[in-house]
Amino acid sequence: MFFQRAHEGRNAWWRWIVTIVGTVVFWFIGYIPLLGFAAKEATRLGITLDDFLSQPLPPEADRNLFLLFSLIPFAVAFCALWFFIALMHHKRLSSAMTGRARFDWKRVFLAFALWVIVLAIGNFAILPPEIRYQFDPASFWPLLVIALLLIPVQTTFEEVLFRGYLMQGVSLLTRSKVAALIVITLLFTALHFDNPEFNTDYMKGVLTYLSLSLLFGLSAVLDDGLEVPCGIHAANNLFLVLIVSPVDGSFVTNALFAAPLAELMKYSPYGDIVAAALMFCALFYGLSWRFSTLTEPTTPLPAMEAPSV
Q1: Looking at residue 98, what DSSP letter applies?
Q2: Is residue 107 part of a domain?
Q3: Owning domain of residue 32
Q4: How confident is residue 173, by pLDDT bands cut at 50, 70 and 90?
Q5: Residue 168 lies in a domain
Q6: 121 CB contacts (<8 Å, ≥6 apart)?
Q7: pLDDT tens digits, 273-290
Q8: How many domains does the chain have?
């Protein structure tokens, strides 16, 4: 049903273009507060704006505010995507989120809990010697509020855009779930090439993001919706923001623990691939997935036939 729901509403090609372009435009508009904050902080610290925005974040900068302003664009873009799906396609946001009658929150929390366990075991089974405990109540509690409010918005937006809206769109063009899965998996990985992981070790970065992106994509296809990938993605980013933050990574925060990115990637990509594979196996058997789902048709059900203009 998830891929069949792509046929709901109106689906002329220009409507997809307007929605994608409109969402991206509002996404960039959402960065205006961040640029204003960065310019103010750069002036306060006596450095250039380029130096401030370069990674890693200057240690004297307010990490909580930087994270807050970094997440606002995703909230703005999410609202824009929601608006354009309703305006352009005449359908609900849920059509790009699940094939079920309702979004299944139990699946979200199950995937979230399982991935937190996997991350905790993977990160703390072999502690890097450079890892340091840095709990500071004055900075951690505001961080916790910001993260719990906005990280799920960020990750859910990315899932709805990539594994939801765009993957459904590719399936309309190709009539194939496998083709849609491959295209979106590669696209999601490619759009993260600017992340610090790729500067540390390009191939490790590619394989790490590819394994995670494939896990997200397979989960969406086999589970008939975004509940599982939304749970995994939120758990992954919340863990990076709140528990173990790389001192030179994408998220430099006042987390409980900090370590150099190179140390955290020491066992990449093999550890990441094993973790993703274990997570997939647990979900595959726990949720009774079937590989035959990959080859099922994406054509609309008779009741879903609608004009495409």
Answers
A1: B
A2: yes
A3: 4-296
A4: very high
A5: yes
A6: none
A7: 999 999 999 999 999 999
A8: 1
Spatial strand order in the sheet of 257-259: 132-133, 257-259, 244-246
Within a domain: 172: yes
- Would you state the pLDDT for residue 222? 97
Q: How far is CA 142 from CA 18, 60, 174, 297, in A?
A: 37, 17, 46, 47
Q: Is the pTM of this model over 0.85?
A: yes
How is residue 252 written in tokens? Answer: 């430099």
Cβ atoms of 235 and 112 within 8 Å: the answer is yes
Asked if 92 contacts 82 with a C-beta cutoff of 8 angstroms, the reply is no
Give the count of beta carbons closer than 10 Å to the beta carbon of residue 101: 8
With H, G, I as helix, E, B as strand and everything else as coil, classify residue 145.
Answer: helix
In angstroms and rounded to an integer, the radius of gyration of the C-alpha atoms of the chain is 20
Q: How far is CA 87 from the centre of its chain?
A: 24
Q: Which residues pair with 91 in a beta bridge?
A: none
Dihedral (Cα; 271, 156, 134, 272), 10-degree rounding: 0
Identify whether 303 is part of a domain: no
Each residue's pLDDT tens digit, 24-34 = 999 999 999 99
- Please check the confidence at residue 162 and state whether its pLDDT lies above 80: yes
